[in-house]
Structure formats: C-alpha cells, structure tokens
C-alpha cells in the first residue's frame, strides 16, 4: 500500500489533490451533520448572524477558496505549503458546494426540492476528482514497466471511449449517466443507445418528425422517473436531509 501510494500519489505530485479531496468530502459531511443538528434544535450549534444578517457558510467558503487557490498557484506541487493550501481549498470548496443550490437560484432553497442539487453536485465533484486522483494516467510516474504502460494505456483508452459515449448520452438528456459514465464502464454506453429524454437536444432534432419515437420517449421517461425518483430521493435525503414541505417553509426561519 505504501509503495503504491508513493508511486501513484506522492511521486506524481498528487498528494495535495488527495488532501483537497479528503478535506472537501469531510467538510461536506461535517457541515451537513451540523446543519441538520441546527435544524432539529439539537447540540450547541446555531446560525451565524451579524447585525441581523444570516451569514451562510458559502461566505467563509469563498474566502477559503480564494486563499487556498492563490496559495496553491504561488507554491509548487510538493512541500508543506502546497499541502496546506490544498486542505484550505478543499474545506472552502466543501462549504461552497454544500450551498451550490443557493448560488444557482439566488435564494435560500437549502431545505427545498431545489436544494437537492447541492448534494448531486458534491457527489459528482467527488467522483470526478477521484477519477483524476486514481493514478491510472502514466504522467509523472517514473520507471514504468512495459506491462504497467500497457495497463494504464488500456485504462486511458477505456476512459476516452466512455467519454465519447458520455457526450452522446448528454445530448440525449441523460446527465447523471453521462457524468458517471466517464468513471463507470458501460454506464455511458447504456445512456447513449437508449431513447433520448423529451426536450433533450437529440430529441428536438431527431424526433421532430418521428411521432412514434417521441411518444416512446415520453412513456419511457415517465416510467423511469416513476420507478427511480423514490430511491433517488431517499438516497439524497440520507446524505443531505429531507427537504421541508410547503407548510414548514411558510413558518419562521428554523435554520
């Protein structure tokens, strides 16, 4: 394990990236735990306010991103300074993306249906950074054997092919399958060969004069959403907390 870590993480200069990813995920988890405790009225935590203004944690997150980002640019990939800046950047990114939905909608939608987008963005970000960190790319690793070069080359070719299928799946409106298809083999292929979702660029362009294809597209999308929306919501609720209903959002602020 130590040898693999050195050859694939430390030697190529990926240790700061590993620290940034770890601090990013840990910050998101801790933040969600604290916010859910505040929501439930438990623990010693409370909302941060200044002069009656609710300070969302995206604010310190932006500050930490700026500090960590500029610090990382000013330092090399190696050394304590780079690692420290990576941790600071990861913490800031975790705070910012935890409130991604608030930035997107310019509204406090943290505990609404729209707030689920923050959880999705965090999961996708962690997955993509994990792909970069995986060490399959033979860049920065010295003295690779022919077998190691062949193995890594095969993985890179697979990722490239998956990426092309992911672009096709994206044009069909299958965003999640497109994103995770870059990481998980055959996911993007499934999204690429299946019918496009209604309203997607592929559907608007190629199903315009094909009423049967449009009807099948609408029916499949309806059946898919009815089958998977429940489990997806439960998974998102398990990670980020269940959104408020309309009545709860009409009451005074509780977060």
From TrEMBL:
<keyword id="KW-0812">Transmembrane</keyword>
<keyword id="KW-1133">Transmembrane helix</keyword>
<feature type="transmembrane region" description="Helical">
    <location>
        <begin position="118"/>
        <end position="141"/>
    </location>
</feature>
<feature type="transmembrane region" description="Helical">
    <location>
        <begin position="55"/>
        <end position="73"/>
    </location>
</feature>
<feature type="transmembrane region" description="Helical">
    <location>
        <begin position="15"/>
        <end position="35"/>
    </location>
</feature>
<feature type="transmembrane region" description="Helical">
    <location>
        <begin position="79"/>
        <end position="106"/>
    </location>
</feature>
<keyword id="KW-0472">Membrane</keyword>
<feature type="transmembrane region" description="Helical">
    <location>
        <begin position="177"/>
        <end position="196"/>
    </location>
</feature>
<protein>
    <recommendedName>
        <fullName>Integral membrane protein</fullName>
    </recommendedName>
</protein>
<feature type="transmembrane region" description="Helical">
    <location>
        <begin position="153"/>
        <end position="170"/>
    </location>
</feature>
